[in-house]
Design a protein that fits this description.
This protein has helices spanning 46-51, 94-112, 140-149, 182-187, 242-250, 264-274, 292-309, and strands spanning 9-12, 15-19, 36-42, 54-56, 59-62, 65-70, 74-79, 83-88, 116-125, 128-134, 154-165, 168-171, 177-181, 196-197, 204-208, 218-229, 235-238, 280-286. The chain is of the alpha+beta class.
Length: 310
């Protein structure tokens, strides 16, 4: 019997992705990817996982292969920047397996291909890309969703591939879906019954955004780091000096594997090539309440002032 699933090719993260596993979140493509082509295959990884040198109980690295295990979900192997191998656990939640393929695996694979994966959301403002980064719970996706309601298009959610061409960073599109917590949906007046839970144990939902997605790369013109304070009003401040470098380093997706892959020098050199020509700000918001409208207004004002100063 011919396995037709193997012939499906998808588009995301600047990659043409040939996958044995269905990836329904992604659009189909018959065009080569900006960054290249990769394969996602399914195989038994039990023996390989048992033998690979372990960094921790759930992470193993051998040369340019990174393996990790998510209990009751799957063992994953990301190899040489061109192959993701998946070994699902018995009765694994398929949605959860895909979540790690399109998140952690892609972040590692992009680094193997020497593409910077930023952890955040990127949007189109004035025909340029702006990234929202921050720790989990800082409100990146909520603010991005609010801006999308104001007709600003999404470039990527969660993993933002950044290529550097002649010292200028370029944000590459992910795929047309957001991940939003129940609280975010409530704030934004969105009914969770309209969306698919990402996986069973958390109130986080997959929100398709096909009509509000920008599918072409754009120059990355600025980064806003979102921070939360218990007693500070909403404010935005530029980040200066070496703190700019540390900000981008801290929000590199899956940064814990950089040293184990032996690519710290590459990462440092890449950041150094553009960090001083990219505006970076810290946006602080109150811990309590819904302040996305005020945050959005402050971001847009900052970008407008930045353009006027040039």
């Amino acid at each position: 019997m011919v396995n037709t699933v193997q012939r499906l090719a998808y588009k995301a993260f600047g990659l043409q992705i040939y996958s044995e596993l269905p990836l329904p979140e992604l659009p189909f493509t018959d065009q080569p990817g900006l960054i290249g082509s990769i394969s996602v295959i399914q195989a038994d990884l039990a023996e390989r996982w048992a033998n690979i040198p372990k960094i921790s109980s759930s992470l193993g690295v051998l040369e340019n292969e990174v393996m990790f295990e998510i209990k009751d979900t799957a063992i994953f192997s990301v190899q040489d920047g061109h192959t993701i191998v998946v070994s699902p656990a018995a009765h694994a939640d398929e949605d959860c397996v895909r979540l790690f393929i399109l998140g952690s695996c892609m972040g590692i694979l992009l680094m193997q291909r020497r593409v910077l994966p930023l952890h955040g959301s990127a949007l189109v403002i004035d025909n340029k890309a702006y990234a929202l980064v921050g720790r989990s719970g800082a409100g990146k996706s909520t603010l991005a969703s609010y801006l999308m309601d104001q007709d600003y298009r999404l470039i990527s959610d969660d993993v933002i591939p950044v290529m550097v061409q002649n010292g200028h960073p370029l944000a590459v599109p992910g795929y047309p879906q957001q991940k939003l917590w129940q609280q975010s949906l409530d704030y934004l007046g969105m009914n969770s019954s309209s969306y698919r839970p990402l996986f069973q144990r958390e109130a986080k939902f997959a929100v398709p955004v096909h009509d509000r997605f920008h599918a072409e790369p754009l120059p990355l013109a600025g980064i806003f780091e979102l921070a939360v304070s218990s007693d500070s009003p909403i404010s935005v401040q530029p980040i200066h000096g070496m703190e700019r470098f540390h900000t981008i380093f801290n929000h590199t997706y899956q940064k814990h594997v950089l040293s184990h892959l032996g690519i710290m020098e590459w990462h440092f050199g890449l950041l150094a090539s553009f960090v001083n020509r990219l505006p970076i700000y810290r946006l602080t918001r109150p811990e309590m309440g819904f302040s996305a409208p005020e945050q959005a207004s402050l971001i847009l004002e900052t970008i407008h002032n930045q353009v006027e100063e040039r």
